[in-house]
């Protein structure tokens, strides 16, 4: 059994007007996610990404179908606290997620609500700060943090809850480039070092291609599901879905067309640079 199982999930938002049909935001979604996967979910605005994410910790309930987290049916309300210990959500706006007036108190908030002993809370906060390399921010007031640092604080709060699955809904959308890189690096490290399951919704292709697997949504359906190599191989398909193709992917494909011997799995700028370097050095 997969860690997350989504079976025939359909979600219809009811219309305010009784006579009108509702809006089908999710249309028969089937998706399995294993423990330790790093998945990016992409798709144009309104394709259903946030609606899907909200089903994974019970913020929305299915119209049809079901979601299971570690075998627990998410809509069973008696079990929801168990689900929320296994998956944490991080949202786009970091300002809406921080409650306390000092970073370390904010990270301690969840464990305190669980009624854990002081010493255990202290240990968890320490671990969360260390694993994200933000020990130096512990006494900061959140309003003095950058957007990226705020998101890291929000992620630290999830880590202090010992959840080993993070679902992040466009966590970098409101950040500057530096903040985006900091959050992305933190996620990659949590995945590599602690085998955390990461599900990241993003509209930045450069971020999506750093995941192990990309799920593409369109109009409430999953239209593609594969490795970054597989997804970026079909540039036309991505464009037809309204998605952007990263410049490095375009460049690699155009160079290949012109007979330059670029390896098949090149899609990041770094990989392309390395390939071009090899070619230049061989001349
Ligand atoms: N609370 C809501 N009530 C009614 N319609 C909604 C609500 N939330 C989202 N929708 C609609 O559902 C569709 C999917 O939205 P959403 O999941 O937010 O897409 P995405 O996150 O991919 O941009 C959109 O058409 C959106 O307008
Ligand atoms: Mg969204």
TrEMBL record:
Gene3D superfamilies: P-loop containing nucleotide triphosphate hydrolases
Pfam families noted in UniProt: ABC_tran (PF00005)
Signal peptide as annotated in the record: none
UniProt keyword annotations, A-Z: ATP-binding, Cell membrane, Membrane, Nucleotide-binding, Translocase, Transport
Subcellular location field: Cell membrane
Top-level taxonomic group: Bacteria
Annotated ABC transporter domain residues: 7-244
GO molecular function: ATP binding; ATP hydrolysis activity; ATPase-coupled transmembrane transporter activity
PROSITE patterns given in the database record: ABC_TRANSPORTER_2
Membrane topology of this protein: Peripheral membrane protein
Chief location bin: membrane
SUPFAM superfamilies, alphabetized: P-loop containing nucleoside triphosphate hydrolases
Gene Ontology CC annotations of this record: ATP-binding cassette (ABC) transporter complex
NCBIfam families: ECF_ATPase_1 (TIGR04520)
Entry's family note: Belongs to the ABC transporter superfamily.
Protein name from the UniProt record: Energy-coupling factor transporter ATPase
């Amino acid at each position: 059994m997969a860690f997350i199982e989504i079976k025939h999930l359909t979600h219809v938002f009811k219309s305010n007007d009784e006579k009108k049909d509702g809006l089908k935001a999710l249309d028969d979604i089937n998706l399995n996610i294993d423990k330790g996967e790093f998945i990016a979910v992409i798709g144009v605005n309104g394709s259903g990404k946030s609606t899907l994410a909200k089903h994974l910790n019970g913020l929305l309930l299915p119209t049809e179908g079901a979601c299971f987290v570690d075998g627990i049916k998410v809509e069973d309300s008696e079990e929801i606290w168990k689900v929320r210990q296994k998956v944490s959500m991080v949202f786009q706006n970091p300002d809406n997620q921080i409650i306390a007036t000092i970073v370390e108190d904010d990270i301690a908030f969840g464990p305190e609500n669980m009624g854990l002993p002081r010493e255990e809370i202290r240990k968890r906060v320490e671990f969360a700060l260390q694993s994200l390399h933000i020990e130096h921010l512990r006494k900061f007031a959140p309003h003095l943090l950058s957007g990226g640092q705020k998101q890291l604080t929000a992620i630290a709060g999830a880590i202090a809850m010992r959840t080993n699955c993070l679902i992040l809904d466009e966590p970098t959308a409101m950040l500057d480039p530096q903040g985006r890189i900091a959050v992305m690096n933190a996620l990659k490290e949590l995945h590599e070092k602690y085998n955390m399951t990461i599900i990241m919704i993003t509209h930045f292709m450069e971020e999506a291609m750093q995941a192990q697997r990309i799920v593409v949504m369109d109009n409430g359906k999953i239209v593609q599901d594969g490795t970054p190599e597989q997804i970026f191989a079909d540039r036309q398909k991505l464009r037809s879905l309204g998605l952007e193709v990263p410049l490095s992917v375009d460049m690699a494909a155009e160079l290949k067309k012109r007979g330059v011997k670029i390896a098949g799995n090149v899609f990041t700028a770094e990989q392309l640079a390395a390939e071009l370097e090899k070619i230049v050095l061989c001349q």
